[in-house]
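Key idea: predict the complex, not the pieces.
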Amino acid sequence: MAEGRQKAQVYKTVLNEHLKKFGAVYAFLLLIIINAISNENFLAINTMWNLLIQAFPIIITSLGMLFVISSGGIDVSVGSVMAVAGGMNAVIMNGIYPAFPRSIFLGIVMALVVSLMFGFFNGFMISVFNMQPIIVTLTTYIIARGLTQLIANGKILSFSNTPFNAVGVLRLPGNVPIQFIIEILFVLITAFVIKRMVFGYQVQAIGENPQAAKLCGIQTTKVQIMVYMISSFIAAIAGLLVSSRTSAADPTNLGALAEMDAIAAVAIGGTSMSGGKSRILTTVISAMIIQLITITINMNNIHYAYARIMKGLIIIIAVYIQQDKKR
Amino acid sequence: MDNNLLLEMKQIDKHFTGVHALDQVDFAVRKGEIHALMGENGAGKSTLVKVLTGLYGKDSGQIIFDGEERSFPTPQDSQNAGISTIYQEINLIPHLSVAENIFIGREPKNVFGIDWKAVRSQARQLLLDNGIDIDVTQDLATYSTAIQQMVAITRAISQNAKLLIMDEPTSSLAEDEIQVMFEKMRELVAKGMSIIFISHKLDEVYTICDRATILKDGKLVGSYDIDKISRLEMVSKMIGRDASNVLKRSVGEYEAKEGTAALLHTKDIDNRVKLHGISIDIRPGEIVGVAGLLGAGKTEFAKVVFGCDNTYTGEIEVEGKPIRMNTPKGAIDLGFAYCSEDRKVEGIFPHMSVKENMTITALSRISKFGVVDTRKQKEIVDKYIDSIRIKTPSPDQLICNLSGGNQQKVLLGRWLSMDPKLIILDEPTRGIDVGAKAEIEALIKQFSENGISVLYISSELEELIRNCYRVVVIRDGMNSGELTGEDITEANIMNYIAKNMKETEEAHG
Ligand SMILES: Nc1ncnc2c1ncn2[C@@H]1O[C@H](COP(=O)(O)OP(=O)(O)OP(=O)(O)O)[C@@H](O)[C@H]1O
Ligand SMILES: [Mg+2]
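Result:
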């Protein structure tokens, strides 16, 4: 009998290990199958492109978040930074401030500069003053959102007929959306940085054991600042693209709750919330899972609130599976 | 059946992915004996213990404890059955107080719940019995590894178990603490308790143990009465070949080249906490030992030299140029390497691979525009896995899955592979088996021949005697004496270590 229990134990650990590694992939396939059965149009190529367009902000911001979480931190300011980038660009493009010439180029540059400044602020306070990441980025979350509302004067900034509008809806030959290309690019760059570059090793090392990282000569301050700047930079790109596709920057809703989706994607993807080894592919798949849930709910005419409940449940289940049960 | 047996493990088998850690191992412990479990790094000692206590499940095999066939699904079950364990990795809770750590899970109660006053006073008394006088209300993390180890021992031996398991309990302890522990062990055995004792230090095993079981590559070699097996036989059985020329090496005189200035010159290093004026010079290619009691300031001095503590006063010169050591990065840029004594907290990145752990300090050297040359990375890793015989199924194995000694070897590889000018080794052979120890010592000697200087910190005097050209003895944060060549003997070192307080005060007064 003891033997039997032991055997069961062994199978349980093997299964557990397997789920840890491939759980996200299974959940993804399951959602695809559910959708394919309940909706005959689902497997059409256009639905796929749509999924990739809608998942765009989650996919790329989750990659930024992956760096932050791997380094042992967290960034809850992502959504607000998306908004500030979209808003900044919109006000300059619309020529609302006479101090700035009406220029798309300048709009984009300013959007990136402001976002990077927020990223720098986050990283600086966290690494130099040793402040809790959640507190610092929560501050940025509030300030950046407030700043957006201030510059937009509380109104939705819409724009039309500019070359900027064209970017977000651009389709390449074969009807391939521009978002898909950017997604692929970001995934490849992230994979390269994490797997092949000194910086990637250093980020993970800091997340695994900050004290040992310092003793190995890693400049933890510099690396941490970089990490938060990367996250904000990616958030800015996401904010710009979303506003381009929707022809508007809504200071209240642009990027709202985006940080939660990004954090969830990283968590479901199996990267430890306390830092360390970055899991890239599963993070991307998890980002798509989160979007798929929303789509599944929409396509089946279920109230959107259920999507949130589903997401919550999936996160808790995923994180439970990832957990190390034996110390 | 021999009813004198407390524990019998039969045909135990255990696999990890790619590793057959235990292969049909038989192991038995008699009542009232101290039984050594011996073997090289990765032989399976810790795994056998963990299978017994329920931390790992076994693939097959039988465990008979106290006359009954048992299987412990969790460590809690084995503890309830009367097995108290000190694991190789200290498994206490750093941010609880010392007292809480000692009593966690079995706190004395009064009508209001946990009786904190009793927790504190009993914890204090238990520690005092073991010769440790500290504030038990402080967080455990505020104390050194050695104190933490003593706390773990105190916790384990105060549990009134039938079987006490000690997996390398002495690795960070100094001589007198080990003596206190041995005394305790003898008392416990006299009361009928049995002890499983794991250590790589033969002296200890021959001092305290009655019998020994030797494992090699997960297989049982045999069990022997300690007084019927010589040390040489024991080591030969552990490493599977004749050991007669292991650990007999010694160094000659250091030959300073004319005009070579000191690589490192330190004078009156003082940090007002543990260091009160230490001066040590190291010339190129010289191996300088640092001896001293626990708390004498050995590690603190190393940390100043490596830029971890920039509150110091005093002079530091590197190759004749005065310099202020501010950060580890700065020290590394000067060609310094520091292999810390605290493997877990200051060493390994647990969930990263052997390869990543080993090459983290060499990255700048093997990368271009920030991109790592993976071919060179692999070369380094293969070289050290081979030369210091790191036992791992592959370079991509997570370091936390390696045995303790093999983790230590990976860390040595990390520092050796950065081609340092000066390498500071703080207890470098902690937890390392005899065979590998000899190899590491040979490697250190080879370094010195290639002009690399070594600052060798160790609480094992024999090791210093075997390997150093010069030994500096420190005491209470001050230089107490210095020995070279033939004069480096255990008696002389002990003499300086024990030199009376007054004398040192006068010398520095
Ligand atoms: N959790 C694990 N996952 C995978 N392999 C493991 C794990 N734990 C141990 N091993 C492997 O099992 C073998 C035996 O390891 P074990 O820790 O028992 O050695 P040991 O005899 O205690 O060595 P040391 O003297 O270095 O502590 C090693 O090859 C080790 O790499
Ligand atoms: Mg071990």
